[in-house]
Every structure is written in C-alpha cells, then in structure tokens.
Design goal:
Chain lengths: 168, 168
Amino acid sequence: MPGTRTSFKDMDCGFAQAIELIGDQWCFLIIRNLLLGMTRFEDFNAHLSISSKVLAHRLERLTAAGIIKARVDPRDARGKIYELTPKGEELKLVYGALTEWGDKWSPKAGGVRTEFFDTKTGDMIGGFAAVSKTGRLLDEGRVASRTGPGGSAVRDELATMIARRMVK
Amino acid sequence: MPGTRTSFKDMDCGFAQAIELIGDQWCFLIIRNLLLGMTRFEDFNAHLSISSKVLAHRLERLTAAGIIKARVDPRDARGKIYELTPKGEELKLVYGALTEWGDKWSPKAGGVRTEFFDTKTGDMIGGFAAVSKTGRLLDEGRVASRTGPGGSAVRDELATMIARRMVK
DNA sequence: ACAACTCACTTTCTTAAAGAAAGTTATATT
DNA sequence: AATATAACTTTCTTTAAGAAAGTGAGTTGT
C-alpha cells in the first residue's frame, strides 16, 4: 500500500526484527536519552524537539515492543516515568558502539563528545569489541558471520545471491 | 515544515550524527547486506523488496555520507558495484551487537539465526563487549558514559534536565 | 546488424505519516 | 476557586513511501 511503511516482521532475521522495533530515528534518540537517565514525556519533547504527537506514538510502539515501561510518578499522579526494561537496557552496547562510530566519523575539534568509563574504577573504556568464547579480544577484521542453527533459508538465499555475483 | 523529516545535523552529538546518516530502516538493511557481501542494485531491490525509487535515494544518501562508494562493473559497463568504504566497514561492530540483540529478543526455536566467528580460527565468537584500555573485558553493567573533552553544553544540559527530575 | 534483453535507475500516482500549532483532560498547587 | 502543568490528542498541510510502469545506455544472441 502506498504511504505505508514496509514491515520487516516476515523477514526471518534477528537484525531485521531489531530494525522493525527500533529502526527509526526517533526511537533511537529516545532510547539514547533513556539510557542516559531521561524519563519524562516533557523532557523528550523539549530536548529532542520531537512533536508530542510523534513522541506519543513512539513511546507506545516502544512499550508494545517491551523495550520501555511506564509507571505513574509516585510523587505526582499527573506525571509518568518511562523506563527501560531489561530488554531495552541490553541495547547499551549497540548504543556505545554507534556513539563511538559517530564521534569518530563526525569528529569535533577538542576530542570526543562522549567518553565511556568503567563505573567501578572510573577508568576510561578503550572501546567496544568482539570477544572469543575464551575471553580473548578479536580484531574487527577477523569477525565474520554465518548462518546459525536457527538460521533460515533466507540467509542462505542471500549468500547464494551474493556468490552468483562475485567479481574480481 | 510539515512532512519534512527533522534533521539532526545541528545536534552536537556523535550519536545523533550517526543517526542522521544511517538511522533509517532501509539504510540499516542495505548496510547489513553490504556487510554480508551484496553489491548490486538489483539484488538489494529483490532481496529487501525495496522499491527502486527508495533504493536509489538511499544509495545516493549513503554515498554522500561517505559510507559506500560505487564503481562500474569491470565485466559489464551496465552494472555498478556498490561497496562499503572504511567508514562503512567500521559499522561491523554495531551491526554485530544489534544482530545479537535482535536474535536474543526475537528468539527462534532451534537457536540463533546468525552466529559470529573468528575468520582466523573458525571458532565461534562469545559476544560483543566493552573493553578497558588495558584490554580487560567489562561487564555491561559497569559501562557508563560522560561528557568528553569535545563534549558540548547540549550534553550537560541533558544531564541537568535529568538530574532535576530524579525520583526515588 | 538488429532485435531482444538487462541493469540501474526515473516517473507517475495514491496514500500514510511527519511536523506545527492549538486544544483537551486529569491532577496539583496557590 | 482559579490557575498551572503533565501528558497527551486533534487538526491541518506537506512530504515522502510504496506500487507499478517507463526510460536509456549497454550487452547478448542470431
């Protein structure tokens, strides 16, 4: 249907499912602010300059996806407090890696805008990386993906599609 | 202006800049396929069921952002080969982490759809994580962020906004 | 050499959703 | 009782998404 955004629900792929849930500029920014501790409708509205209509829709979508949950402000029944669920909290790494990438490739004189640190030691974090089963760090270049046990024909079809095209 | 999607270019924040460039469902999926080795207009078109109009726009946007680059197929001057630039390749970690999250929270009987492995040893990868400067792995719960040297008033303003609201 | 075919787009047309701004409702404060 | 505030909802206009058909340079088959 024209105008309707395409849904990826039928795509048998974890990545596509993730994008179905949070692959929207506003969702990304809202979750980012939630990860930083923001909780109020008003604050998202003001800080992100998002219209209240769209904000309400996004909060509803994120709630339905089980990424956030709202509760009434115990001090003032008018207010709601929006918080990340464990599912939402686990996006922290994705956000860290994306923030690092963004800061690297949209650089600013003076240094990074955001730095990550270890809350136990206060030390700055070196970065985000893939880790072997034995706890060894792996160079980004060594990381590749393949179809897992729950993988579908879709992924193999993709591989075939790609193989058929190989140049050079 | 109504209908115009909001731009985040003025937001002084690496994360927002990243979202400005790739924070769109189609861009995400296109880059995912590029990371898996897909290179052709036709293949994105068919595999993602994206309309050619929108695909052309996205490829243009990603090219302008310096994330992909096109070259003519040396074997057939009709065809173009789209490839990730180093900037684009560096999104691999973000994609790995997001795929892992999506596979975990949209689970499938039988196991993960996609598994990551070390191209040197063939061993499966344990996961993605934050790493200290000294190369130690950090528990996700220990990771937090703060304003860096290039950080702006925007982030501090956000922190203030949040602090003002603290409950419990 | 010429027709048929491919690839990478454009164009056209319809409709859903984004943005701006004003309005609503249920509490809360004075 | 009057005013304020938080979290939405409504209205209205415009842009962009989606479907489908069309275009043009380049290639292949005969």
